[in-house]
């Protein structure tokens, strides 16, 4: 009896220690996520303050009510931009963290880093991206444009009620549209089952739209950067050749990764991104830390080129932010665009084979990623568009000389 009670006490003590350890790990993860979000928020607020105009409609001269309205909208834009920056840095951080955890599992300075922290970051980015895109950013836009239901426009709560009503109508419209599209695609879904539309399904459409925007903007950005580097390095022969070589190397590396990924998909050496949730996660990079650094640089380079290419499109140039001359409405639109592009970046990087790190969280359950023909077609279109845009920019001087002669 004494021995059995001692064993039970030891088992109870071990269970309590395990629960205490899990609790402390959970609290530590939340604190780390909060510190990361606060840091990104401060950076985003500083960036928005650089671009935001100091017009009379956004100052104290318009009254306390408008002052609070514009400040709340600016805070929402800062939060959404922080989430966008987190989405861009999510995949490089995950790849680097997984490699460090594999190489140095018992390192004292890496005890704060864990697999559960990486999964928590992916889940937070997914949830906050949806919250910002479907709730916060529309609220900030309609909040600025609102006047209130009552004729007495004094008081900020009248504008809050009107904004909430318009946002509710917008959410209903989005749910109905997605339900109609789903009913057209799948015959097993009824038009009246709005509750069957879940958040990952809606985000599948958004991510697909973001990936298609990246397909349009990234090749244009490659060509634009190639042209800018050529124009900036005309002062000397050797610097020009050096910078041109570096730019061609980056573009060629990205294009080569896409071509290799296409061949792997065709010959069955690589599975679709959606099947990562059913298999063992492959997180160890074959080239070690050097490969992780190269992947991270290429991912950041692709995001930068996509933004440059997107804002180089003729009918979108008017939305390009200018320092101290951008209205808050244009800032909200730009934050929405950047959020869509940055949220689709992990999907793009995994789809075209820039990284072998599997998508985590709800990203791995996106509906369109299980379509082999669609993924293969996207890789082929991306490679073809990049080749055509870069080749077109390279041959522009030759074509101009031919036309002149």
Automatic annotation (TrEMBL):
The keyword Membrane is assigned to this record: yes
A UniProt-annotated Pfam family: LMBR1
Superkingdom of origin: Eukaryota
GO CC field: plasma membrane
GO BP: signal transduction
MF-aspect GO terms: transmembrane signaling receptor activity
Keywords from the UniProt entry: Membrane, Transmembrane, Transmembrane helix
Transmembrane region(s): 31-48, 68-93, 121-143, 163-185, 197-216, 255-272, 292-316, 328-355, 375-396
Annotated family: Belongs to the LIMR family.
Protein name: Serpentine receptor class gamma
Organism per entry: Angiostrongylus cantonensis
Lineage, highest ranks first: Eukaryota, Metazoa, Ecdysozoa, Nematoda, Chromadorea
């Amino acid at each position: 009896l004494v021995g059995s009670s001692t064993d039970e006490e030891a088992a109870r003590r071990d269970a309590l220690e395990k629960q205490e350890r899990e609790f402390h790990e959970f609290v530590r993860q939340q604190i780390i996520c909060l510190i990361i979000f606060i840091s990104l928020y401060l950076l985003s607020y500083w960036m928005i303050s650089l671009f935001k105009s100091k017009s009379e409609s956004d100052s104290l001269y318009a009254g306390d009510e408008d002052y609070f309205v514009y400040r709340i909208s600016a805070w929402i834009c800062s939060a959404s931009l922080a989430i966008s920056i987190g989405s861009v840095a999510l995949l490089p951080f995950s790849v680097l963290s997984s490699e460090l955890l594999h190489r140095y599992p018992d390192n004292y300075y890496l005890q704060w880093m864990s697999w559960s922290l990486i999964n928590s970051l992916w889940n937070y980015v997914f949830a906050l991206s949806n919250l910002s895109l479907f709730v916060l950013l529309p609220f900030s836009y309609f909040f600025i444009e609102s006047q209130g239901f009552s004729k007495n426009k004094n008081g900020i709560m009248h504008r809050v009620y009107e904004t909430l009503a318009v946002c509710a109508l917008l959410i209903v419209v989005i749910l109905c549209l997605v339900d109609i599209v789903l009913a057209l695609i799948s015959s097993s879904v009824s038009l009246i089952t709005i509750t069957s539309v879940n958040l990952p399904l809606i985000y599948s459409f958004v991510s697909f739209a973001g990936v298609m925007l990246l397909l349009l903007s990234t090749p244009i950005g490659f060509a634009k950067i190639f042209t800018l580097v050529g124009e900036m390095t005309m002062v000397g022969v050797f610097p020009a050749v050096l910078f041109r070589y570096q730019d061609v190397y980056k573009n060629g590396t990205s294009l080569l990764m896409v071509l290799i990924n296409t061949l792997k998909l065709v010959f069955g050496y690589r599975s679709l991104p959606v099947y990562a949730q059913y298999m063992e996660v492959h997180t160890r990079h074959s080239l070690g830390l050097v490969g992780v650094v190269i992947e991270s640089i290429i991912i950041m380079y692709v995001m930068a080129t996509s933004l440059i290419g997107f804002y180089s499109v003729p009918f979108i140039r008017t939305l390009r932010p200018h320092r101290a001359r951008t209205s808050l409405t244009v800032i909200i639109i730009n934050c929405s665009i950047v959020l869509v592009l940055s949220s689709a970046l992990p999907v793009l990087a995994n789809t075209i084979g820039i990284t072998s790190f599997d998508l985590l969280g709800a990203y791995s359950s996106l509906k369109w990623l299980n379509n082999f023909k669609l993924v293969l077609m996207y890789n082929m279109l991306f490679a073809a568009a990049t080749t055509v845009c870069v080749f077109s920019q390279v041959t522009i001087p030759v074509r101009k000389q031919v036309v002149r002669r």
